[in-house]
Predict the 3D structure of the following.
Amino acid sequence: MKKMMAANWKMHKTRAEARESAATLIASLSSMPDDREVVIFAPYTALADCANEFAGKEGFSLGGQNVYSEDHGAFTGEISPAMLRDAGCTHVLTGHSERRALFHESSEAIGKKTAFALKQGLKVTLCIGETLEEREGGHLESVLREQLIKGVADVDDAVSDSDLAIAYEPVWAIGTGKVAGPVEILETHALVRKLLVERFPEQGRSIRILYGGSVKPDNASEIITLDNVDGVLVGGASLDAASMRQIVLA
Ligand code: 13P
């Protein structure tokens, strides 16, 4: 399976800025290696514009940064999988730590979104990760187990390994410039792999596990070659097309 080189633009970029970034990135990656694919998780307002830029471009996909677990209704401010698809998305993120911490999303609610988005035909990248206090308190495994197992609780046992991915993003490494070291990434990705195989004995070995947290052009090549690292989810460094290009080619 290809390595998934994903950009989470978070709450950045106007439509014009998003079009410009998408076009620059596409032009700079005209010869993308066969083993790489790019997914951009753009803000809602820029999705349709990015979809236009990506149309017909092999290896580039678009995703939303969040989704709700209902098809339609009185859910002010929310967005459905069908609406994301209508705007050109094939992917969506669930459970980002900013959703968990700032918007109080529970693992149960994230599980509902994950299962519903998959049922509605989106490919889901479920984000999990521990805080520094949880890691230092010896709770790494229990935290990741809770987030992962509840996050996929209602997912079909036969889910395809190309439809579900897990992004391991240690909260203490997000936007801090503090990247997890190779040993921490190796150990934690092995743990996530173990949990995935427990839950999905068939596909658990091939479901992709992405690393996220202060990935930059100068550390991406070391990270991407580690065992059980099947991609990266990049925040800050993805906002600049030139730096995202370097990461994609790392
Ligand atoms: P940074 O790359 O800015 O640390 O963000 C990581 C992240 O949260 C991606 O989802």
Remarks:
- Residues 8, 96, 169, 174-175, 212-215, 233-237 surround 1,3-dihydroxyacetonephosphate (CB under 6 Å).
- The beta strands are 3-8, 36-41, 60-64, 91-94, 123-128, 164-168, 208-212, 231-234.
- The first helix runs from residue 15 to 28.
